[in-house]
Amino acid sequence: MLRDCTDYRDIFLNDRPLMDARAPIEFSHGAFPGVVNLPLMNDREREQVGTCYKQHGQQAAIALGERLVSAEIREQRIQGWVEFARNNPDGYLYCFRGGLRSQIVQQWIKDEGGIDYPRVGGGYKAMRTFLLETVDQAVAECDLVLLGGMTGTGKTEALVQLSNSLDLEGHANHRGSSFGKRATGQPTNIDFENRLAVDVLKQRAGGLRQFVLEDESRVVGSCALACSLYRGNQVVPLVRVGDWSDKPGGRPLQDYVIDLHAEFVAVHGELGFALYAERLISSLNNIQRRLGGERYQRMYLQMEAALSEQARNGSVELFREWIGVLLRDYYDPMYVFQREKKGGRIEFAGEREAVLEYLRERVNQTL
């Protein structure tokens, strides 16, 4: 009898290799970290077989699938599955519900490759449910603390120095602000939730009972926090990094200009600067209504001048004035509003090193 596994905790804690037999369109909507998509059927085949299943039943759908997949295509797919199984003897395969598709792949690997390769019982759906419940349980059972502060005060730098942090921006591949888009795209919301849940699972397995998260809105770029996590964040204590920065515009200049430019060049080569400039202008356009017409026009001209100088000689100095206006007239007022709204939840405030010392001592008290 062919084997299956329902120990989802072991799969994610130990990064077991996973082969996803779902169609590419299903995989693109959401998957687990590090998974390889080796589908039984492509998108068109899946659509035709699904229609046949609904109209004529399972046996007719299986027969259609066998007709659609020629001997040559079938051989290529089996070769890919067998190769994966041989290279990853401690792995598993799965389909959406752990049903017919993964059973077929499992049987063909056995018949053609002689390998009794296990599949995940319950498939993608069961593993996804397990990860969602992992986050819900952490919110209910763990001590959560939010780290807040004005833009440019080094919150992210403080967060990554903590052993018990959950880096929402890192998992979302976004810096969490209107100018936070990176050169590479964001994951799907499902991928974001899965990555975060695996992080939570591993940290809890290591004995952590307290997590520090950056004080974010419900969405980080296009990625939304799970409802339980967002609701939990509305009542937990807040620690605030003081309203200071290393140099006016220093951190935002590094993030929004220097690092972003380097990312675009690394990804797009000669087209990098033009795409980077387009991204900055697009981000400014997105907040035009909040800035108001006159302020927006002034900042737009400042940005154009700064981009022209950067293109001409590499200097980013003109961005300091522009970023100063962005902080003073856009980010800071929003933060002050939120700080006043959440003032009763602030349990500590100080400069970055003092905040780090406080948070490290705080987690030691929960161990």
UniProtKB/TrEMBL annotation:
Pfam families found in the cross-reference section: AAA_SelU
GO BP terms, alphabetized: tRNA wobble uridine modification
EC number, UniProt record: 2.9.1.3
Active-site residues, as the UniProt record annotates them: 95 (s-selanylcysteine intermediate)
PROSITE patterns: RHODANESE_3 (PS50206)
Catalytic reactions on record: 5-methylaminomethyl-2-thiouridine(34) in tRNA + (2E)-geranyl diphosphate = 5-methylaminomethyl-S-(2E)-geranyl-thiouridine(34) in tRNA + diphosphate; 5-methylaminomethyl-S-(2E)-geranyl-thiouridine(34) in tRNA + selenophosphate + H(+) = 5-methylaminomethyl-2-(Se-phospho)selenouridine(34) in tRNA + (2E)-thiogeraniol; 5-methylaminomethyl-2-thiouridine(34) in tRNA + selenophosphate + (2E)-geranyl diphosphate + H2O + H(+) = 5-methylaminomethyl-2-selenouridine(34) in tRNA + (2E)-thiogeraniol + phosphate + diphosphate; 5-methylaminomethyl-2-(Se-phospho)selenouridine(34) in tRNA + H2O = 5-methylaminomethyl-2-selenouridine(34) in tRNA + phosphate
Gene Ontology molecular function, alphabetical: transferase activity, transferring alkyl or aryl (other than methyl) groups; tRNA 2-selenouridine synthase activity
Keywords: Selenium, Transferase
PANTHER family, A to Z: TRNA 2-SELENOURIDINE SYNTHASE (PTHR30401)
Role noted for this protein: Involved in the post-transcriptional modification of the uridine at the wobble position (U34) of tRNA(Lys), tRNA(Glu) and tRNA(Gln). Catalyzes the conversion of 2-thiouridine (S2U-RNA) to 2-selenouridine (Se2U-RNA). Acts in a two-step process involving geranylation of 2-thiouridine (S2U) to S-geranyl-2-thiouridine (geS2U) and subsequent selenation of the latter derivative to 2-selenouridine (Se2U) in the tRNA chain.
Record protein name field: tRNA 2-selenouridine synthase
Organism: Pseudomonas fluorescens
Taxonomic lineage of the native organism: Bacteria, Pseudomonadati, Pseudomonadota, Gammaproteobacteria, Pseudomonadales
Name of the gene: selU
